[in-house]
Design brief:
By secondary structure, the chain is of the alpha+beta class. 21% of the residues lie in helices and 48% in strands. The longest helix has 14 residues, at 16-29. The two termini are 26 Å apart.
Length: 99
């Protein structure tokens, strides 16, 4: 399942690999240009918090933001859940971590 952090036009969640691909395609389609660069990984076994710097152009505006993502993985490494967050605190709380 790919829950949406809320307030985005592509809906509340997507399920399965096809749902993730649909979410990614919808997300990328609105950008004129986009580049993401992982800045940090907090590995907590089956859960990984990733800090992502996103730069690009959206409707002609220059964007440079940091987002946080929480991914959950099976023992074989396959991702089974992905969540995006606008704050570090939100990602850490969802991962069951506190600073």
């Amino acid at each position: 399942m790919v829950p949406d952090p809320g307030g985005h036009p592509w809906g509340p969640h997507h399920t399965g690999f096809a749902g993730f691909r649909r979410w990614a395609a919808d997300f990328l389609a609105v950008w004129d240009e986009i580049h993401t660069e992982p800045q940090e990984f907090l590995d907590r076994g089956d859960r990984v918090v990733t800090v992502l710097r996103m730069k690009g152009k959206l409707h002609g505006l220059e964007i440079d933001e940091v987002w946080w993502a929480l991914s959950t993985h099976r023992d074989d490494g396959r991702m089974v859940r992905f969540q995006a967050f606008g704050t570090r605190e939100g990602a850490l709380e969802a991962a069951g971590l506190r600073e």
